[in-house]
Write a structure and sequence with these properties.
single chain; alpha+beta; 9-stranded mixed β-sheet; 5-stranded antiparallel β-sheet; 11 helices; about 25% helix
Length: about 625
Protein backbone atom coordinates (compact mmCIF):
# COMPACT_ATOMS: atom_id res chain seq x y z
CA UNK A 1 0.00 0.00 0.00
CA UNK A 2 2.89 2.34 0.80
CA UNK A 3 4.53 1.61 -2.57
CA UNK A 4 1.22 2.31 -4.36
CA UNK A 5 0.87 5.68 -2.61
CA UNK A 6 4.42 6.67 -3.55
CA UNK A 7 3.79 5.72 -7.19
CA UNK A 8 0.63 7.83 -7.31
CA UNK A 9 2.51 10.81 -5.82
CA UNK A 10 5.29 10.50 -8.40
CA UNK A 11 2.77 10.35 -11.26
CA UNK A 12 0.95 13.41 -9.92
CA UNK A 13 4.22 15.36 -9.71
CA UNK A 14 5.23 14.34 -13.23
CA UNK A 15 1.81 15.30 -14.57
CA UNK A 16 1.97 18.68 -12.85
CA UNK A 17 5.45 19.34 -14.20
CA UNK A 18 4.47 18.26 -17.70
CA UNK A 19 1.36 20.42 -17.55
CA UNK A 20 3.32 23.50 -16.52
CA UNK A 21 5.85 22.92 -19.32
CA UNK A 22 3.09 22.46 -21.87
CA UNK A 23 1.31 25.57 -20.61
CA UNK A 24 4.52 27.61 -20.94
CA UNK A 25 5.23 26.25 -24.41
CA UNK A 26 1.68 26.84 -25.55
CA UNK A 27 2.13 30.57 -25.19
CA UNK A 28 3.60 30.70 -28.74
CA UNK A 29 3.67 28.18 -31.56
CA UNK A 30 6.37 28.25 -34.25
CA UNK A 31 6.31 26.54 -37.65
CA UNK A 32 8.79 26.23 -40.53
CA UNK A 33 7.78 25.49 -44.12
CA UNK A 34 9.55 25.14 -47.48
CA UNK A 35 7.42 26.38 -50.38
CA UNK A 36 9.21 24.90 -53.40
CA UNK A 37 11.12 21.89 -54.68
CA UNK A 38 14.84 21.90 -53.87
CA UNK A 39 17.50 21.79 -56.59
CA UNK A 40 21.15 22.83 -56.63
CA UNK A 41 21.46 26.54 -57.46
CA UNK A 42 17.70 27.14 -57.44
CA UNK A 43 16.38 29.54 -54.75
CA UNK A 44 13.60 28.29 -52.52
CA UNK A 45 11.51 30.09 -49.91
CA UNK A 46 11.70 29.10 -46.24
CA UNK A 47 8.99 30.63 -44.05
CA UNK A 48 9.28 30.60 -40.25
CA UNK A 49 5.98 31.62 -38.60
CA UNK A 50 5.13 32.29 -34.96
CA UNK A 51 1.87 33.27 -33.29
CA UNK A 52 3.18 36.45 -31.67
CA UNK A 53 3.11 40.19 -32.31
CA UNK A 54 6.82 40.69 -31.59
CA UNK A 55 9.75 38.35 -32.19
CA UNK A 56 13.39 38.41 -33.23
CA UNK A 57 14.27 36.97 -36.66
CA UNK A 58 16.25 33.78 -35.97
CA UNK A 59 19.71 33.39 -37.47
CA UNK A 60 19.71 30.32 -39.73
CA UNK A 61 22.80 28.58 -41.08
CA UNK A 62 22.60 25.33 -43.05
CA UNK A 63 25.25 22.85 -44.08
CA UNK A 64 24.84 22.48 -47.85
CA UNK A 65 22.86 25.65 -48.59
CA UNK A 66 23.21 29.41 -48.53
CA UNK A 67 20.53 31.21 -46.50
CA UNK A 68 19.58 34.91 -46.77
CA UNK A 69 16.99 36.71 -44.64
CA UNK A 70 14.70 38.70 -47.01
CA UNK A 71 12.02 40.22 -44.76
CA UNK A 72 8.97 39.59 -42.62
CA UNK A 73 5.18 39.75 -42.87
CA UNK A 74 2.53 40.27 -40.22
CA UNK A 75 -1.10 39.13 -40.25
CA UNK A 76 -3.72 39.98 -37.59
CA UNK A 77 -7.04 38.14 -37.20
CA UNK A 78 -9.99 39.02 -34.94
CA UNK A 79 -12.39 36.15 -34.18
CA UNK A 80 -15.20 36.57 -31.62
CA UNK A 81 -13.40 39.53 -30.09
CA UNK A 82 -10.12 37.62 -29.73
CA UNK A 83 -7.12 39.09 -31.59
CA UNK A 84 -4.39 36.82 -32.97
CA UNK A 85 -1.19 38.04 -34.66
CA UNK A 86 1.11 35.88 -36.75
CA UNK A 87 4.64 36.91 -37.72
CA UNK A 88 6.35 35.22 -40.66
CA UNK A 89 10.08 35.54 -41.30
CA UNK A 90 11.03 34.81 -44.92
CA UNK A 91 14.38 33.39 -46.02
CA UNK A 92 15.83 32.47 -49.40
CA UNK A 93 17.53 29.06 -49.40
CA UNK A 94 19.87 28.17 -52.30
CA UNK A 95 21.20 24.58 -52.07
CA UNK A 96 24.88 24.15 -52.96
CA UNK A 97 24.97 20.34 -53.25
CA UNK A 98 22.66 17.49 -54.09
CA UNK A 99 21.46 14.96 -51.55
CA UNK A 100 19.86 15.23 -48.14
CA UNK A 101 19.28 18.65 -46.60
CA UNK A 102 18.41 18.75 -42.93
CA UNK A 103 16.93 21.91 -41.47
CA UNK A 104 17.19 21.54 -37.69
CA UNK A 105 14.68 22.87 -35.19
CA UNK A 106 14.67 26.67 -35.33
CA UNK A 107 14.35 28.67 -32.12
CA UNK A 108 12.35 31.91 -32.26
CA UNK A 109 12.77 34.37 -29.38
CA UNK A 110 9.86 36.52 -28.17
CA UNK A 111 9.49 38.86 -25.17
CA UNK A 112 7.49 36.09 -23.47
CA UNK A 113 9.92 33.29 -24.11
CA UNK A 114 11.04 31.05 -26.96
CA UNK A 115 9.30 28.72 -29.39
CA UNK A 116 10.86 25.97 -31.50
CA UNK A 117 9.88 24.65 -34.91
CA UNK A 118 9.91 21.02 -35.95
CA UNK A 119 12.94 19.93 -38.01
CA UNK A 120 12.59 19.54 -41.79
CA UNK A 121 14.23 16.79 -43.84
CA UNK A 122 14.33 17.33 -47.62
CA UNK A 123 16.19 15.97 -50.63
CA UNK A 124 18.02 18.30 -53.03
CA UNK A 125 18.00 17.38 -56.72
CA UNK A 126 21.07 17.89 -58.88
CA UNK A 127 21.20 20.97 -61.09
CA UNK A 128 19.36 20.23 -64.35
CA UNK A 129 17.93 16.97 -63.01
CA UNK A 130 14.42 18.38 -62.58
CA UNK A 131 11.97 17.56 -65.38
CA UNK A 132 10.53 20.40 -67.52
CA UNK A 133 7.14 20.03 -65.87
CA UNK A 134 8.72 20.19 -62.42
CA UNK A 135 10.81 23.20 -63.44
CA UNK A 136 7.71 25.07 -64.49
CA UNK A 137 5.94 24.23 -61.28
CA UNK A 138 8.95 25.32 -59.27
CA UNK A 139 9.51 28.53 -61.23
CA UNK A 140 6.01 29.68 -60.45
CA UNK A 141 6.53 29.37 -56.72
CA UNK A 142 10.29 29.26 -56.05
CA UNK A 143 11.98 32.24 -54.50
CA UNK A 144 10.56 34.88 -52.17
CA UNK A 145 7.62 36.99 -53.24
CA UNK A 146 9.61 40.18 -52.62
CA UNK A 147 13.06 41.13 -51.39
CA UNK A 148 15.47 44.09 -51.53
CA UNK A 149 19.21 44.61 -51.99
CA UNK A 150 21.54 47.61 -51.60
CA UNK A 151 24.96 47.99 -53.22
CA UNK A 152 27.58 50.22 -51.55
CA UNK A 153 30.91 50.66 -53.38
CA UNK A 154 33.03 50.93 -50.23
CA UNK A 155 32.87 49.59 -46.68
CA UNK A 156 35.27 52.21 -45.30
CA UNK A 157 34.13 55.84 -45.42
CA UNK A 158 34.92 59.22 -43.89
CA UNK A 159 32.45 61.66 -42.38
CA UNK A 160 31.17 63.90 -45.16
CA UNK A 161 32.26 61.57 -47.96
CA UNK A 162 29.64 60.93 -50.64
CA UNK A 163 29.34 57.61 -52.48
CA UNK A 164 26.75 56.37 -54.99
CA UNK A 165 24.42 53.57 -53.86
CA UNK A 166 21.97 51.41 -55.79
CA UNK A 167 18.85 49.98 -54.17
CA UNK A 168 16.93 47.24 -55.99
CA UNK A 169 13.60 45.74 -54.93
CA UNK A 170 12.41 42.51 -56.57
CA UNK A 171 8.78 41.37 -56.86
CA UNK A 172 8.11 37.85 -58.12
CA UNK A 173 5.81 37.38 -61.10
CA UNK A 174 2.24 36.98 -59.91
CA UNK A 175 2.81 39.25 -56.89
CA UNK A 176 0.99 42.57 -56.72
CA UNK A 177 3.06 45.25 -54.97
CA UNK A 178 2.10 48.67 -53.63
CA UNK A 179 4.88 50.90 -52.31
CA UNK A 180 4.04 52.39 -48.90
CA UNK A 181 7.01 54.75 -48.89
CA UNK A 182 10.53 55.25 -50.19
CA UNK A 183 13.58 53.21 -49.21
CA UNK A 184 15.19 54.49 -46.01
CA UNK A 185 18.21 53.59 -43.92
CA UNK A 186 18.03 51.96 -40.53
CA UNK A 187 20.85 54.13 -39.11
CA UNK A 188 20.81 57.86 -38.35
CA UNK A 189 24.57 57.99 -38.95
CA UNK A 190 23.97 58.30 -42.71
CA UNK A 191 21.94 60.50 -45.03
CA UNK A 192 20.39 59.28 -48.27
CA UNK A 193 19.87 62.10 -50.78
CA UNK A 194 18.77 62.48 -54.41
CA UNK A 195 16.44 59.49 -54.06
CA UNK A 196 13.88 59.59 -56.91
CA UNK A 197 10.19 59.36 -56.04
CA UNK A 198 9.61 56.74 -58.73
CA UNK A 199 12.06 53.88 -59.38
CA UNK A 200 13.27 52.65 -62.75
CA UNK A 201 11.69 49.32 -63.65
CA UNK A 202 12.81 46.27 -65.60
CA UNK A 203 11.78 42.64 -65.98
CA UNK A 204 14.51 40.21 -65.00
CA UNK A 205 14.92 36.50 -64.38
CA UNK A 206 16.72 35.14 -61.33
CA UNK A 207 17.54 31.42 -61.34
CA UNK A 208 14.73 30.82 -63.79
CA UNK A 209 12.17 32.83 -61.79
CA UNK A 210 10.70 36.00 -63.41
CA UNK A 211 10.80 39.17 -61.27
CA UNK A 212 9.92 42.82 -61.64
CA UNK A 213 12.98 44.85 -60.54
CA UNK A 214 12.55 48.40 -59.18
CA UNK A 215 15.81 50.39 -59.00
CA UNK A 216 16.66 53.57 -57.09
CA UNK A 217 20.04 55.37 -57.33
CA UNK A 218 21.02 57.86 -54.64
CA UNK A 219 23.98 59.41 -52.80
CA UNK A 220 25.00 58.06 -49.41
CA UNK A 221 26.85 60.39 -47.05
CA UNK A 222 27.97 59.57 -43.48
CA UNK A 223 26.98 62.25 -40.98
CA UNK A 224 28.95 60.99 -37.98
CA UNK A 225 31.43 58.23 -37.07
CA UNK A 226 29.94 54.75 -36.78
CA UNK A 227 30.92 51.11 -36.86
CA UNK A 228 28.28 48.52 -37.70
CA UNK A 229 25.92 47.02 -40.25
CA UNK A 230 24.21 49.34 -42.71
CA UNK A 231 20.69 48.24 -43.64
CA UNK A 232 17.95 49.54 -45.92
CA UNK A 233 14.20 49.14 -45.43
CA UNK A 234 11.26 49.46 -47.83
CA UNK A 235 7.61 49.33 -46.68
CA UNK A 236 5.34 47.64 -49.23
CA UNK A 237 1.97 45.96 -49.41
CA UNK A 238 2.03 42.71 -51.38
CA UNK A 239 -0.74 40.39 -52.52
CA UNK A 240 -0.36 36.91 -54.00
CA UNK A 241 -2.12 33.59 -54.22
CA UNK A 242 -1.03 30.50 -52.35
CA UNK A 243 0.85 27.95 -54.39
CA UNK A 244 -1.70 25.97 -56.51
CA UNK A 245 -2.01 22.20 -56.54
CA UNK A 246 -1.58 20.55 -60.00
CA UNK A 247 -4.50 18.55 -61.38
CA UNK A 248 -4.16 15.32 -63.28
CA UNK A 249 -3.32 15.90 -66.95
CA UNK A 250 -5.50 14.47 -69.69
CA UNK A 251 -3.93 11.56 -71.61
CA UNK A 252 -1.63 12.77 -74.33
CA UNK A 253 -1.72 16.37 -73.17
CA UNK A 254 0.88 18.24 -71.04
CA UNK A 255 -0.78 20.58 -68.57
CA UNK A 256 2.38 22.71 -68.62
CA UNK A 257 2.57 23.13 -72.39
CA UNK A 258 0.79 26.47 -72.40
CA UNK A 259 2.95 27.82 -69.59
CA UNK A 260 6.20 26.80 -71.26
CA UNK A 261 5.28 28.63 -74.46
CA UNK A 262 3.92 31.76 -72.78
CA UNK A 263 5.71 34.99 -72.04
CA UNK A 264 6.30 34.97 -68.23
CA UNK A 265 5.70 38.73 -68.15
CA UNK A 266 2.42 38.69 -70.11
CA UNK A 267 -0.76 40.15 -68.69
CA UNK A 268 -1.33 37.09 -66.51
CA UNK A 269 1.45 38.34 -64.22
CA UNK A 270 1.79 42.12 -64.44
CA UNK A 271 -1.03 43.03 -66.82
CA UNK A 272 1.39 44.85 -69.12
CA UNK A 273 1.17 47.91 -66.85
CA UNK A 274 3.44 49.86 -64.58
CA UNK A 275 2.97 48.47 -61.02
CA UNK A 276 4.12 51.81 -59.54
CA UNK A 277 1.93 54.22 -61.47
CA UNK A 278 -0.60 54.47 -64.26
CA UNK A 279 -3.52 52.15 -64.89
CA UNK A 280 -4.74 49.06 -63.09
CA UNK A 281 -1.72 46.69 -63.10
CA UNK A 282 -3.96 43.73 -63.84
CA UNK A 283 -5.87 45.39 -66.69
CA UNK A 284 -9.12 45.12 -64.77
CA UNK A 285 -8.96 41.30 -64.73
CA UNK A 286 -7.85 38.59 -62.35
CA UNK A 287 -4.06 38.13 -62.73
CA UNK A 288 -4.46 34.46 -61.83
CA UNK A 289 -7.46 33.80 -64.05
CA UNK A 290 -5.48 32.15 -66.86
CA UNK A 291 -4.31 29.42 -64.48
CA UNK A 292 -7.73 28.52 -63.13
CA UNK A 293 -8.33 25.97 -65.86
CA UNK A 294 -5.24 23.98 -64.92
CA UNK A 295 -4.84 24.46 -61.16
CA UNK A 296 -6.85 24.48 -57.98
CA UNK A 297 -6.41 28.18 -57.22
CA UNK A 298 -5.19 29.02 -53.72
CA UNK A 299 -6.44 31.77 -51.45
CA UNK A 300 -5.22 35.34 -51.99
CA UNK A 301 -2.80 36.53 -49.29
CA UNK A 302 -2.31 40.26 -48.61
CA UNK A 303 0.34 41.55 -46.21
CA UNK A 304 2.02 44.79 -45.16
CA UNK A 305 5.70 43.95 -45.39
CA UNK A 306 8.89 45.81 -44.54
CA UNK A 307 11.62 44.51 -46.84
CA UNK A 308 15.05 44.66 -45.24
CA UNK A 309 18.55 44.02 -46.50
CA UNK A 310 22.03 44.58 -45.15
CA UNK A 311 24.76 46.20 -47.23
CA UNK A 312 27.36 44.73 -44.91
CA UNK A 313 29.57 46.14 -42.18
CA UNK A 314 30.51 49.77 -42.82
CA UNK A 315 33.09 51.72 -40.82
CA UNK A 316 32.83 55.52 -40.82
CA UNK A 317 35.90 57.41 -39.57
CA UNK A 318 36.06 61.01 -38.37
CA UNK A 319 38.26 63.29 -40.47
CA UNK A 320 41.74 63.61 -38.98
CA UNK A 321 42.91 66.66 -37.08
CA UNK A 322 45.02 69.34 -38.71
CA UNK A 323 42.55 70.63 -41.30
CA UNK A 324 44.00 73.60 -43.23
CA UNK A 325 42.54 77.09 -42.92
CA UNK A 326 39.45 77.58 -45.04
CA UNK A 327 38.47 73.90 -45.00
CA UNK A 328 34.66 73.67 -45.32
CA UNK A 329 34.26 69.88 -45.03
CA UNK A 330 34.62 68.91 -48.70
CA UNK A 331 35.64 65.28 -49.18
CA UNK A 332 36.69 64.03 -52.61
CA UNK A 333 39.16 64.98 -55.33
CA UNK A 334 38.88 68.46 -56.86
CA UNK A 335 40.61 70.96 -59.14
CA UNK A 336 40.13 74.72 -59.20
CA UNK A 337 40.56 77.33 -61.94
CA UNK A 338 39.81 81.04 -62.37
CA UNK A 339 38.63 82.96 -65.42
CA UNK A 340 39.77 86.63 -65.66
CA UNK A 341 37.20 89.38 -66.21
CA UNK A 342 35.99 89.88 -69.74
CA UNK A 343 36.90 93.21 -71.37
CA UNK A 344 39.00 96.07 -70.04
CA UNK A 345 39.18 96.97 -66.36
CA UNK A 346 38.62 100.59 -65.30
CA UNK A 347 38.81 102.29 -61.97
CA UNK A 348 35.43 102.35 -60.22
CA UNK A 349 33.75 100.05 -62.71
CA UNK A 350 32.57 96.57 -61.61
CA UNK A 351 33.85 93.40 -63.27
CA UNK A 352 33.19 89.71 -62.69
CA UNK A 353 35.63 86.90 -62.11
CA UNK A 354 34.57 83.23 -62.32
CA UNK A 355 36.02 80.46 -60.14
CA UNK A 356 35.32 76.84 -61.18
CA UNK A 357 35.79 73.75 -58.98
CA UNK A 358 35.59 70.41 -60.81
CA UNK A 359 36.09 66.84 -59.69
CA UNK A 360 34.40 64.00 -57.80
CA UNK A 361 33.07 64.13 -54.27
CA UNK A 362 30.51 65.72 -52.01
CA UNK A 363 29.92 69.12 -53.64
CA UNK A 364 27.37 70.05 -50.97
CA UNK A 365 30.24 70.66 -48.53
CA UNK A 366 32.45 72.52 -51.01
CA UNK A 367 32.68 76.30 -50.52
CA UNK A 368 35.14 78.98 -51.72
CA UNK A 369 35.67 82.28 -49.94
CA UNK A 370 36.99 84.05 -53.05
CA UNK A 371 39.18 87.14 -53.15
CA UNK A 372 39.44 89.34 -50.05
CA UNK A 373 39.01 93.12 -50.26
CA UNK A 374 42.23 95.18 -50.26
CA UNK A 375 43.25 98.81 -50.44
CA UNK A 376 43.42 98.45 -54.23
CA UNK A 377 40.30 96.34 -54.72
CA UNK A 378 36.69 96.14 -53.49
CA UNK A 379 35.15 92.66 -53.65
CA UNK A 380 31.55 91.49 -53.34
CA UNK A 381 30.14 87.96 -53.14
CA UNK A 382 28.19 86.70 -56.14
CA UNK A 383 26.23 83.49 -56.74
CA UNK A 384 27.05 79.79 -56.75
CA UNK A 385 25.81 77.32 -59.38
CA UNK A 386 26.36 73.54 -59.55
CA UNK A 387 26.14 71.54 -62.78
CA UNK A 388 26.21 67.75 -62.40
CA UNK A 389 28.56 65.92 -64.72
CA UNK A 390 26.44 62.76 -64.95
CA UNK A 391 23.94 60.73 -62.96
CA UNK A 392 23.84 62.11 -59.44
CA UNK A 393 25.87 64.96 -58.01
CA UNK A 394 29.16 63.25 -57.17
CA UNK A 395 30.81 64.55 -60.33
CA UNK A 396 30.39 67.96 -61.90
CA UNK A 397 31.40 71.61 -61.73
CA UNK A 398 30.62 74.14 -59.03
CA UNK A 399 30.94 77.73 -60.28
CA UNK A 400 31.46 80.76 -58.01
CA UNK A 401 31.17 84.30 -59.37
CA UNK A 402 32.57 87.36 -57.60
CA UNK A 403 32.30 91.05 -58.40
CA UNK A 404 35.46 93.17 -58.12
CA UNK A 405 35.91 96.97 -58.40
CA UNK A 406 39.44 98.34 -58.84
CA UNK A 407 40.20 101.45 -56.75
CA UNK A 408 43.31 102.68 -58.62
CA UNK A 409 44.78 102.51 -62.10
CA UNK A 410 47.84 100.49 -63.01
CA UNK A 411 48.94 96.90 -62.51
CA UNK A 412 46.66 94.77 -60.32
CA UNK A 413 47.78 91.37 -59.05
CA UNK A 414 45.09 88.90 -57.99
CA UNK A 415 46.50 86.31 -55.57
CA UNK A 416 45.97 82.55 -55.93
CA UNK A 417 42.68 81.23 -54.53
CA UNK A 418 42.92 78.11 -52.34
CA UNK A 419 40.49 75.18 -52.15
CA UNK A 420 41.34 72.84 -49.23
CA UNK A 421 39.67 69.41 -49.22
CA UNK A 422 40.18 65.92 -47.82
CA UNK A 423 41.25 63.22 -50.29
CA UNK A 424 39.86 59.81 -49.14
CA UNK A 425 42.23 57.96 -51.49
CA UNK A 426 45.37 59.65 -50.15
CA UNK A 427 43.79 59.84 -46.66
CA UNK A 428 45.18 63.33 -46.29
CA UNK A 429 44.22 66.98 -46.67
CA UNK A 430 45.04 68.52 -50.04
CA UNK A 431 44.89 72.17 -51.12
CA UNK A 432 44.23 73.02 -54.77
CA UNK A 433 45.11 76.56 -55.93
CA UNK A 434 44.49 78.75 -58.91
CA UNK A 435 47.30 80.53 -60.71
CA UNK A 436 47.83 84.22 -59.74
CA UNK A 437 46.40 86.74 -62.20
CA UNK A 438 48.15 89.91 -63.36
CA UNK A 439 45.62 92.49 -64.60
CA UNK A 440 45.91 96.01 -65.97
CA UNK A 441 43.46 98.67 -64.77
CA UNK A 442 42.77 101.77 -66.84
CA UNK A 443 41.85 105.14 -65.39
CA UNK A 444 38.20 105.97 -64.86
CA UNK A 445 36.26 107.37 -67.81
CA UNK A 446 37.07 111.08 -68.14
CA UNK A 447 40.23 110.62 -66.09
CA UNK A 448 38.50 111.54 -62.82
CA UNK A 449 39.40 110.16 -59.47
CA UNK A 450 37.61 107.22 -58.02
CA UNK A 451 34.52 107.89 -55.93
CA UNK A 452 34.44 105.04 -53.33
CA UNK A 453 30.77 105.64 -52.58
CA UNK A 454 29.88 105.51 -56.25
CA UNK A 455 32.03 102.42 -56.73
CA UNK A 456 30.22 100.60 -53.95
CA UNK A 457 26.82 101.65 -55.27
CA UNK A 458 27.78 100.41 -58.72
CA UNK A 459 27.63 96.83 -57.49
CA UNK A 460 23.90 97.29 -57.08
CA UNK A 461 23.52 99.39 -60.24
CA UNK A 462 26.55 99.38 -62.58
CA UNK A 463 24.85 101.94 -64.79
CA UNK A 464 25.57 104.52 -62.08
CA UNK A 465 29.22 104.39 -63.12
CA UNK A 466 28.85 103.91 -66.84
CA UNK A 467 26.16 106.58 -67.21
CA UNK A 468 26.96 109.49 -64.92
CA UNK A 469 24.39 112.26 -64.88
CA UNK A 470 25.34 115.75 -65.95
CA UNK A 471 23.85 118.03 -63.34
CA UNK A 472 23.87 120.99 -65.76
CA UNK A 473 24.08 124.66 -64.71
CA UNK A 474 23.26 125.50 -61.10
CA UNK A 475 21.73 128.68 -59.60
CA UNK A 476 22.63 130.05 -56.18
CA UNK A 477 20.22 131.95 -53.90
CA UNK A 478 20.50 133.60 -50.48
CA UNK A 479 16.86 132.88 -49.45
CA UNK A 480 16.64 130.54 -46.40
CA UNK A 481 15.16 127.10 -47.08
CA UNK A 482 12.34 127.45 -44.52
CA UNK A 483 11.00 130.50 -46.42
CA UNK A 484 10.68 128.58 -49.69
CA UNK A 485 7.22 127.10 -50.54
CA UNK A 486 8.61 123.85 -51.92
CA UNK A 487 10.39 123.25 -48.59
CA UNK A 488 7.08 123.34 -46.67
CA UNK A 489 5.39 121.06 -49.20
CA UNK A 490 8.27 118.56 -48.94
CA UNK A 491 8.28 118.70 -45.14
CA UNK A 492 4.49 118.16 -44.95
CA UNK A 493 4.68 115.24 -47.35
CA UNK A 494 7.39 113.57 -45.25
CA UNK A 495 5.27 113.97 -42.10
CA UNK A 496 2.25 112.41 -43.82
CA UNK A 497 4.24 109.43 -45.12
CA UNK A 498 5.80 108.90 -41.67
CA UNK A 499 2.36 108.94 -40.01
CA UNK A 500 1.04 106.38 -42.48
CA UNK A 501 4.03 104.08 -41.94
CA UNK A 502 3.67 104.29 -38.15
CA UNK A 503 -0.06 103.54 -38.38
CA UNK A 504 0.49 100.51 -40.59
CA UNK A 505 3.25 99.20 -38.30
CA UNK A 506 1.05 99.62 -35.22
CA UNK A 507 -1.87 97.95 -36.99
CA UNK A 508 0.19 94.94 -37.96
CA UNK A 509 1.76 94.57 -34.50
CA UNK A 510 -1.63 94.47 -32.78
CA UNK A 511 -2.14 90.80 -31.74
CA UNK A 512 -5.82 90.97 -32.56
CA UNK A 513 -5.12 92.25 -36.05
CA UNK A 514 -2.42 89.59 -36.50
CA UNK A 515 -4.88 86.85 -35.52
CA UNK A 516 -7.48 88.18 -37.95
CA UNK A 517 -4.96 88.36 -40.79
CA UNK A 518 -3.70 84.86 -39.99
CA UNK A 519 -7.24 83.47 -39.98
CA UNK A 520 -7.96 85.08 -43.35
CA UNK A 521 -4.79 83.60 -44.84
CA UNK A 522 -5.67 80.16 -43.46
CA UNK A 523 -9.21 80.36 -44.87
CA UNK A 524 -7.87 81.31 -48.30
CA UNK A 525 -5.38 78.43 -48.25
CA UNK A 526 -8.01 75.87 -47.26
CA UNK A 527 -10.47 77.25 -49.81
CA UNK A 528 -7.89 76.78 -52.58
CA UNK A 529 -7.16 73.23 -51.47
CA UNK A 530 -10.87 72.40 -51.27
CA UNK A 531 -11.41 73.76 -54.76
CA UNK A 532 -8.52 71.64 -56.08
CA UNK A 533 -9.93 68.62 -54.22
CA UNK A 534 -13.42 69.09 -55.72
CA UNK A 535 -11.98 69.52 -59.22
CA UNK A 536 -9.93 66.31 -58.85
CA UNK A 537 -13.03 64.45 -57.62
CA UNK A 538 -15.01 65.53 -60.69
CA UNK A 539 -12.20 64.34 -62.94
CA UNK A 540 -11.76 61.05 -61.09
CA UNK A 541 -8.16 61.96 -60.24
CA UNK A 542 -7.57 60.01 -57.01
CA UNK A 543 -3.95 61.14 -56.62
CA UNK A 544 -4.83 64.84 -56.99
CA UNK A 545 -7.86 64.48 -54.73
CA UNK A 546 -6.09 62.85 -51.78
CA UNK A 547 -3.04 65.14 -52.12
CA UNK A 548 -5.25 68.28 -51.96
CA UNK A 549 -7.33 66.79 -49.13
CA UNK A 550 -4.23 66.08 -47.05
CA UNK A 551 -2.87 69.60 -47.64
CA UNK A 552 -6.16 71.12 -46.50
CA UNK A 553 -6.19 69.01 -43.33
CA UNK A 554 -2.51 69.76 -42.69
CA UNK A 555 -3.18 73.51 -42.94
CA UNK A 556 -6.03 73.32 -40.41
CA UNK A 557 -4.10 71.06 -37.99
CA UNK A 558 -0.95 73.21 -38.32
CA UNK A 559 -2.91 76.27 -37.14
CA UNK A 560 -4.32 74.33 -34.18
CA UNK A 561 -1.06 72.65 -33.15
CA UNK A 562 1.22 75.62 -34.00
CA UNK A 563 3.55 73.63 -36.22
CA UNK A 564 4.47 73.71 -39.95
CA UNK A 565 1.62 72.09 -41.93
CA UNK A 566 3.88 70.08 -44.25
CA UNK A 567 5.60 68.52 -41.23
CA UNK A 568 2.39 66.87 -40.00
CA UNK A 569 2.25 63.14 -40.74
CA UNK A 570 -0.16 60.31 -40.10
CA UNK A 571 1.90 59.39 -37.04
CA UNK A 572 1.31 62.90 -35.58
CA UNK A 573 -2.42 62.54 -36.16
CA UNK A 574 -2.45 59.17 -34.45
CA UNK A 575 -0.39 60.46 -31.51
CA UNK A 576 -2.38 63.66 -30.91
CA UNK A 577 -5.92 62.63 -31.85
CA UNK A 578 -5.99 58.89 -31.20
CA UNK A 579 -9.25 57.26 -32.28
CA UNK A 580 -10.72 60.70 -32.97
CA UNK A 581 -8.25 61.09 -35.89
CA UNK A 582 -8.88 57.70 -37.54
CA UNK A 583 -10.64 59.27 -40.55
CA UNK A 584 -7.94 61.93 -40.99
CA UNK A 585 -5.21 59.31 -40.73
CA UNK A 586 -6.92 57.24 -43.44
CA UNK A 587 -6.83 60.27 -45.77
CA UNK A 588 -3.10 60.75 -45.09
CA UNK A 589 -2.41 57.06 -45.79
CA UNK A 590 -4.44 57.13 -49.02
CA UNK A 591 -2.50 60.21 -50.13
CA UNK A 592 0.81 58.39 -49.57
CA UNK A 593 -0.44 55.32 -51.40
CA UNK A 594 -1.69 57.19 -54.46
CA UNK A 595 1.53 59.23 -54.54
CA UNK A 596 3.87 56.24 -54.52
CA UNK A 597 1.73 53.64 -56.31
CA UNK A 598 -1.22 55.29 -58.00
CA UNK A 599 -1.61 52.48 -60.53
CA UNK A 600 -2.06 49.80 -57.88
CA UNK A 601 -4.84 51.52 -55.95
CA UNK A 602 -8.21 49.96 -56.63
CA UNK A 603 -10.71 52.25 -58.36
CA UNK A 604 -13.23 53.62 -55.90
CA UNK A 605 -15.77 56.45 -55.84
CA UNK A 606 -14.37 59.68 -54.39
CA UNK A 607 -17.68 61.23 -53.30
CA UNK A 608 -17.73 59.51 -49.86
CA UNK A 609 -14.15 60.67 -49.24
CA UNK A 610 -15.14 64.16 -50.38
CA UNK A 611 -17.92 64.30 -47.79
CA UNK A 612 -15.62 62.89 -45.08
CA UNK A 613 -12.92 65.51 -45.67
CA UNK A 614 -15.44 68.37 -45.67
CA UNK A 615 -16.93 67.17 -42.38
CA UNK A 616 -13.51 66.86 -40.77
CA UNK A 617 -12.50 70.36 -41.91
CA UNK A 618 -15.72 71.82 -40.53
CA UNK A 619 -15.27 69.96 -37.25
CA UNK A 620 -11.66 71.11 -36.89
CA UNK A 621 -12.71 74.70 -37.55
CA UNK A 622 -14.79 74.78 -34.35
CA UNK A 623 -12.25 72.82 -32.31
CA UNK A 624 -10.92 75.07 -29.52
Amino acid sequence: MNIFNKTIAVLVAVAATTGSVLAAGAAHTARAELHSQLAVGTPAELAVSIDASTATPPAIRLDGADVRYTGQTSQTSIINGSTTTQLTFVYTVVPTRAGALDIPAITVTTPDGVATTAPIHETVAAAGAVSPAQQTTTSASAGPHAFIRMEVPSRSLYVGQGVPVTIRAYFRAGTSASLEGLPHLSSDAFTLSELPDKPAQAQVELAGVPYLMATWTAMLSPAKPSNGALSVELPVEIAYRDAPRPRAAAPGHSRFGDLLSADPFASSFFGGADPFGGADPFGGSDPFGDLDSMFDVGAVQQHDVTLRASAGHVVVTELPAGAPAGFSGAVGRFKIAIDPPAGDLRVGEPATITIRATGTGNFDRLAIAGLPATADLDTFAGKTVFAAGGAGSLTGTKTFTQTIIPRRAGALALPAIALPYFDPVKRAYVTARTAPLALSVAAAAGGGATDPTLATASVRDPSMVANRLDRGPTRATLQPLYRRSDFHALFGGLLAVTAIIVAIAWWRRDPRIARILGAHRLDRTIAKRRAAMDLAARRGDASGFFTSAREALQARLGAIWHMPPDAITAADVDLRLGERGAAIRSVFERADRTTYAAGLAAAEPLEPWQTLVRDELDLLEVTP
